[in-house]
Amino acid sequence: MKLLFAADIHGSLAGARQMLAAYDASRADWLILLGDLLYHGPRNALPQEYRPADVAALLNNYSDRIIAVRGNCDSEVDQMLLNFPITAPWQQVLLERTRLFLTHGHLYNPDARPPMRQGDVLAYGHTHIPQAAEAEGIICFNPGSVSLPKGGFPPSYGLLENGTLRVVSLETSETIAQVAINH
Question: pTM, whole model, 2 decimals?
Fold first, then answer.
């Protein structure tokens, strides 16, 4: 199974289009959205092509392939525009030998982990900073931000393929970070 991860779109139509083009090109089975899909948030500048309603319409074309969690900027009003559920604070995906714990990152994150076993993956967004690393037996994975990257990183997304989690630049398709998992 191949999964594409994206976080922190924040209403950027340009970012959403690039991410969905990467999803289509990757031929991933599922699109995992780790929150903050439509609203830019009061602490962020407006992203390029800030058009939340158009982002919602674009994402709705993929609604049967999306697994999503709620970010700190997502609301019930956002859910009214989307044809897939976004109100769960976390979700889990079970692979053969690994559990993916999906969350936005404002409730659960590497410093505030849910109960996890050795080899589990904590997939989160929120910080807008890519990460793919093992810490105390847990894989911490953040695909970065599609539209408002921080820390000097480019816009990015994540990909799980053949037992490797990678963070990939939206601009160049180069790998920014990667870590192997026990899938």
Answer: 0.96
